[in-house]
Design goal:
Layout: H1 7-32, E1 34-35, E2 56-57, E3 67-69, E4 86-91, E5 99-108, E6 113-121, E7 127-129, E8 136-138, E9 141-150, E10 158-162, E11 172-178, E12 184-193, E13 203-208, E14 213-216, E15 280-282, H2 300-312, E16 317-323, H3 330-350, E17 358-362, H4 375-381, E18 383-390
Parallel strand pairs: 9-13, 16-17
Antiparallel strand pairs: 1-14, 2-5, 3-4, 4-13, 5-12, 6-11, 6-13, 6-14, 7-8, 9-10, 9-12, 15-18, 16-18
């Protein structure tokens, strides 16, 4: 005999059904959520120093805003990927660069994962006035695009994504996964130098047709898109710097070269009569290959002077410290500064200085001694120092 459902049974079933339905609708809505950008293809009248409608200039004070392209004034002829115009962003030799941002209609939420797609290209002609030379220069070197989140216009509160150096002169779609750790009401697209580099340079990146920002499961990874360029750059990328050895090779100390005590002239601070424990001495005229720990030949006299100081003062113990300027990211600066300090240490070991008298460390860009806003300041920050650890053996 079939039991007839009671009123309470029916009500309970309806509540359960509605609860499940609301959960499914809520989950569907979460993953279907999209954040549309205003004027995502940067439509406007092609002209220099004009921020497209819907966007905010995030460049440096005193510098011109980005350019609506294509524009004959710059000899930029790339056809738009979508619509009639796009934005051109540049980096400059005076350590300034361009960017654009806007307020989001719906904030990005920390702990939620998003995807965004956009098209990037590089113009092989981009003629603009250089603030360094005050002449028309070619801003054509490959640069990167970085995406920041913040709580106000142009604020770089959290780096959400970064491209590789954009070398392609045809439009290529880039897909990024963004995993903010905090809420962001504003988004900011910034041109930046290819890292690693220690010299600011003139470059450009073209940006067009940005998709809506979509919520995705954090376990989902966007499909990588390879860059294809029918006109590859004639010069290949430099080989990446090898990973550092955590410790010097445990080789026996070689027989030292004969030592003749001479008064230092390149780094006159290497004077036993004047130094004390804790002193830091910058080694002058010490040169490395760009973005490398390889010591240049013209540094020989400076290194020989350091060796002479160590050999004639056998009770001195030192730390060799490497330092960089402030342009690249911390990880790269830490690695390169450590490798350069190790290169100087290896030179002294190869000449017969005991390993027990030397240690080395990379400080990256954490201890500047000058401003990083000028080329002269960055040159001062990029250095190798020795620290006197002991004068008593």
């Amino acid at each position: 005999m079939t039991k007839t459902p009671s009123f309470s049974d029916v009500v309970g079933f309806e509540r359960l059904f509605l609860t499940v339905l609301f959960c499914l609708v809520g989950a569907s809505a979460m993953f279907a959520q999209v954040i549309e950008l205003r004027n995502p293809s940067f439509e406007g009248q092609p002209r220099p120093s004009t921020t497209p409608a819907g966007w905010y200039d995030c460049g440096f004070e005193g510098q011109s805003p980005p350019d609506i392209q294509p524009n004959g004034s710059f000899n930029v002829r790339t056809r738009p990927q979508k619509g009639n115009t796009y934005v051109g962003l540049v980096t400059r030799r005076d350590n300034t660069w361009e960017g654009v941002g806007q307020r989001l209609s719906v904030p990005l939420e920390g702990g939620t994962c998003y995807t965004i797609r956009l098209f990037l290209a590089r113009s092989d002609t981009y003629e603009s006035m250089s603030m360094v030379t005050r002449k028309t220069e070619s801003f054509t070197k490959p640069i990167t695009l970085r995406i920041w989140g913040g709580s106000s216009f142009c604020q770089k509160k959290e780096l959400l994504a970064s491209s590789k150096a954009v070398k392609n002169t045809n439009w290529v779609e880039f897909t990024f996964k963004m995993e903010p750790t905090r809420d962001h009401r504003y988004i900011f697209f910034e041109a930046y130098y290819k890292t690693p580099t220690f010299s600011a340079y003139d470059g450009n990146v073209l940006l067009d047709n940005i998709s809506a920002i979509e919520v995705i499961p954090c376990s989902e990874e966007p499909e990588p898109i390879a860059q294809v360029d029918p006109k590859p750059d004639p010069k290949p990328d430099p080989k990446p710097e090898p990973k550092p050895d955590p410790k010097p090779d445990p080789k026996p100390d070689p027989k030292p070269d004969p030592v003749v005590a001479v008064k230092p002239v390149i780094t006159p601070e290497l004077d036993r009569a004047k130094i004390k424990e804790g002193d830091k001495i910058r080694i002058n005229n010490l040169y490395f290959k760009a973005d490398s720990s390889k010591i240049e030949v013209k540094s020989k006299s400076s290194l020989d002077e350091l060796y002479n100081f160590m050999a004639t003062n056998p009770d001195v113990k030192i730390e060799v410290g490497g330092h960089t300027n402030g342009i690249p990211e911390h990880d790269y600066c830490d690695n390169l500064s450590r490798l350069r300090a190790k290169a100087v240490t290896d030179f002294l070991l190869s000449k017969g200085i005991r390993s027990s008298r030397i240690s080395y460390k990379g400080y990256g860009k954490r201890k500047p001694i000058a401003t990083n806003e000028t080329a002269a300041g960055r040159a001062k920050n990029q250095r190798v120092e020795i620290k006197i650890l002991s004068l008593n053996g």
